[in-house]
Amino acid sequence: MSQDQTTFRIPVPLRWSDLDAFNHVNNARYLTFLEQARIEWLEGIDEPWVTADAGPVVATATLNFRRPIEYPASILVELFVERIGNSSMVIGHRILADDGSLHCDGNVVMVWIDRLSGKATPLPDAVRRAAQRLQP
């Protein structure tokens, strides 16, 4: 895991089960790679970001597939925060080859919700502070 001031980066190892019949990473796995990076980033906050009362859901996911990931490959997932709202944030993402070429980019809108009502609830303070550190 590495991080500069505005980008969170993690390497993601490929598994044989990530591949499709064309020896490419299946497009659905890209979402799994992005989820893994988001969880590792949130776990690194070292303060509660999910509780019995509230937690995040993905409201929107946009993926722009730029180039297939062919096995074997080494990839990095980069995250950065595009916007912070009252109960949501837009997390930009890139999936890169180890040579820096772009496989995928886009963003995810995450909304914190009250588990009982299903309605939006304010971002936890720890998440807001961490998100502000990832804004350009």
Structure, described:
This protein is α+β, with helices and mostly antiparallel strands. It contains two helices and six strands. The chain has a six-stranded antiparallel β-sheet. The longest helix is centred in the first third of the chain and has 17 residues, at 27-43. The chain is elongated, with a radius of gyration of 15 Å. The chain starts with a strand and ends with a helix.
What is the CATH T-level topology?
A: Thiol Ester Dehydrase, Chain A
How large is the share of residues in beta strands?
Answer: 35-45%
- The helix content is 10-25%
Report the CATH superfamily: Hotdog Thioesterase
For the sheet with most strands, the description reads: 6 strands, antiparallel
User: CATH first level: which class?
Assistant: Alpha Beta
Question: Which residues sit in consecutive blocks of at least 5 with pLDDT less than 50?
Answer: none
* Amino- and carboxy-terminal Cα gap: 19 Å
Rg measurement, Å: 15 Å
Helix-strand layout with pairing:
Elements: E1 2-3, E2 8-12, H1 27-43, E3 54-65, E4 75-84, E5 88-97, E6 102-114, H2 125-133
Antiparallel strand pairs: 1-2, 2-4, 3-6, 4-5, 5-6
